[in-house]
Design goal:
Elements (H helix, E strand, L loop, with lengths): L1 H12 L4 H17 L9 H13 L4 H20 L26 H9 L4 H13 L3 H5 L6 E2 L4 E4 L8 E4 L2 H13 L22 H15 L5 H14 L4 H8 L4 H4 L8 H31 L11 E8 L6 H7 L6 E8 L14 H5 L13
Antiparallel strand pairs: 1-2, 2-3, 4-5
Helix pairs in contact: 1-2, 2-4, 6-8, 6-10
Length: 376
């Protein structure tokens, strides 16, 4: 279609990569082939039916979202650039995407994977991915001029989104790259070249690198991909307490939210903080239990006491009808004031039989039972 061809030229003028243009056009050709109405008559109902069509093909939610985003941009182009009088039918049409964690390798898996790689070229390629966080296409397009071995850094030109950045070489990655460059005799600018077959000396393609990692994955029996090595580098830096903004710069992420995904992956820093904090919580809880147990052991238990009763020591007069012999046996002299334990009640509680004071004693004016409403 002429409009799609004009859209292709528009994307080229916007400096979109060839891969992006190819992907966009492929999606648009599928969409226009499915449509049964002209483009200007497309509504949200047609878009909804197209989503059902894609789901019937068992495409993943992420792939369907890519289709919707591409079609939305195309209609935006028609409205803004070609001045088609219509509303964008893809607005407010989306699919809820799952948020899987980035898959990374453990330290043991990294060691096991690298142990089976003996070829200097392949070892240098994969060390750049796992130590510098390079994408597979960035490794394929890496040139000799971009390598600064003495200063231990690489210049990544035209990365994803046409962005340049500088990454740094670890000691083992720099050693692997140096060993490969010593054996490499070609004067081609691209570093990683085909070593066998009729294409010897030509640039190793992205698919060629992917085939090599698939081979080593089978040999080492480690589930690994080129991008999982990049995830591994980011996760290891985060676990080593590297700043999130630093990881963002090294990976070449435009938005910090993209880098924050790694915070959900085996975050050793979060793990340390959790165990430190939960240990303090448990110590406080145990200390509270010990204090409560000690308080319970030291507190006297009064039979028949209600939960709202308290015990105090008060001085009460002796009974006048007690004989000196009875007082002597009890340890006091008749008529003297003695110290005894009586239950204390809140001021607003009416004393009832069973409160710890007998009915007869409460009626006896000479006993003169005294309430002390103040609480201990």
């Amino acid at each position: 279609m002429e409009r799609i061809d004009r859209y292709r030229r528009f994307l080229k003028r916007r400096n979109f990569s060839s891969h992006t243009v190819k992907s966009y056009l492929n999606i648009l050709f599928q969409f226009t082939a499915w449509l049964t109405v002209p483009l200007r008559e497309v509504t949200r109902k047609e878009i909804g039916r197209y989503v059902d069509h894609l789901m019937g093909r068992r495409l993943s939610p992420k792939t369907i979202t890519c289709h919707l985003q591409t079609i939305r941009l195309f209609f935006t182009y028609l409205i803004d650039e070609e001045e088609v009088d219509m509303a964008n039918p893809v607005t407010k049409v989306s699919i809820r995407l799952p948020k899987p964690l980035p898959r990374h390798l453990t330290d043991d898996q990294v060691t096991k994977f690298l142990a089976v790689i003996e070829d200097p070229r392949d070892r240098a390629m994969f060390m750049l991915m796992v130590r510098c966080g390079l994408r597979v296409e960035e490794v394929s397009r890496l040139t000799v001029d971009a390598v600064d071995i003495p200063r231990r850094r690489l210049f990544v030109a035209n990365g994803k989104g046409r962005k340049d950045r500088v990454v740094y070489l670890s000691e083992d990655a720099g050693s692997a790259l140096t060993n490969y460059l010593k054996e490499r005799s070609s004067k081609t600018k691209r570093i990683f070249l085909v070593q066998k077959g009729p294409l010897t000396g030509t640039t190793l393609s992205v698919r060629g690198i992917q085939k090599r990692i698939e081979y080593y994955a089978r040999v080492s029996k480690v589930t690994v991909s080129c991008h999982s090595l990049r995830h591994t580098m980011a996760t290891q830096l985060l676990n080593a307490d590297a700043d999130l903004a630093t990881i963002q710069d090294l990976l070449g992420h435009t938005h910090i939210t993209t880098t924050q995904r790694y915070c959900r992956v085996s975050n050793v820093k979060a793990q340390r903080d959790y165990y430190t904090a939960i240990e303090l919580v448990m110590q406080r809880s145990q200390r509270g239990k010990d204090e409560e147990s000690s308080s319970m052991m030291s507190r006297k238990k009064t039979p028949g006491r209600r939960p709202d009763q308290r015990e105090i020591r008060v001085l009460v007069p002796t009974r006048k009808d007690e004989t000196p012999e009875q007082g002597k046996n009890a340890g006091y002299t008749a008529g003297e004031r003695r110290e005894t334990s009586v239950p204390q009640f809140p001021a607003d509680v009416k004393h009832e039989p069973g409160d710890g004071v007998s009915e007869e004693a409460m009626r006896n004016d000479e006993f003169r039972y005294r309430r002390y409403p103040e609480r201990l």
